[in-house]
Design a protein that fits this description.
The protein is an alpha/beta fold. The chain contains six helices and six strands. About 40% of the residues lie in helices and about 15% in strands.
Length: about 220
């Protein structure tokens, strides 16, 4: 009986991965304006991402016309709250996931008031608040880069050389995001409403080359 009691009160394995969620507030992520449904994608993938990647905490960043300077900010959520031998750890973790869902929607709603689509800057902003050997970043966006400093035209990405030139220009205009060694999980990549089917593969290749080849992060396609 004592052994059974100990097994019931023993805390679960800790959740240690520092995680980030980047959320697209631009018009292209609004289904009501003809874009892809960023809110639906966020709701579908957030909890699976946080649980499957064993996230111990989660930070948020918006995609707006000036993502790094955006006033949209929500607090970090601790997904592995502490306790003692009387704590119901499963219940505490479920409550924390609920807080993370609420924070994500708050970030999206704020981002939608500011417009624009600085994806590269949002990656830099989330990279600034995350550190450690096992960082995971969920990016809910069609990855349309369109801000006052730099805009990507999918028609200009038809060859590896052309994509390299555009990456050079983007880095020159927007700098390099500090996401080296992190894992980036895109959701919605290439779902731009005006992109032609023949341009979509080139567009996705562009972002993979930019994130992996230049920013030295790793792109994972576990969530779509």
């Amino acid at each position: 009986m004592l052994a059974a009691l100990a097994s019931c009160t023993e805390p679960p394995d800790p959740l240690t991965a520092p995680c980030g969620v980047v959320i697209d507030g631009s018009g292209s992520g609004d289904a009501g304006k003809g874009g892809f449904d960023a809110e639906a994608k966020l709701k579908d993938t957030l909890v699976p991402f946080l649980t499957e990647q064993k996230c111990g905490s989660v930070e948020f960043a918006p995609i707006t016309r000036s993502s790094e300077a955006s006033s949209c900010r929500v607090d970090e959520v601790d997904l592995d709250p502490g306790g003692d031998e009387t704590t119901d750890h499963d219940s505490a973790r479920r409550k924390a996931l609920g807080e993370a869902k609420q924070a994500a929607i708050e970030e999206l709603e704020c981002a939608r008031t500011q417009g624009g689509s600085d994806v590269w800057g949002a990656l830099d902003r989330i990279g600034e608040v995350l550190s450690g050997p096992d960082v995971k970043i969920l990016v809910v966006s069609d990855f349309e880069q369109a801000d006052k400093d730099f805009t990507i035209e999918p028609s200009e990405l038809s060859t590896e050389a052309a994509r390299g030139e555009v990456i050079d220009d983007m880095v020159e205009a927007r700098g390099m995001p500090g996401i080296k060694g992190m894992e980036v999980y895109p959701v919605g990549l290439g779902m731009i409403k005006d992109i032609r089917p023949e341009e979509n593969d080139d567009f996705q290749a562009f972002w993979t080359e930019a994130i992996e080849g230049r920013a030295e992060a790793r792109v994972q396609y576990d969530y779509k």
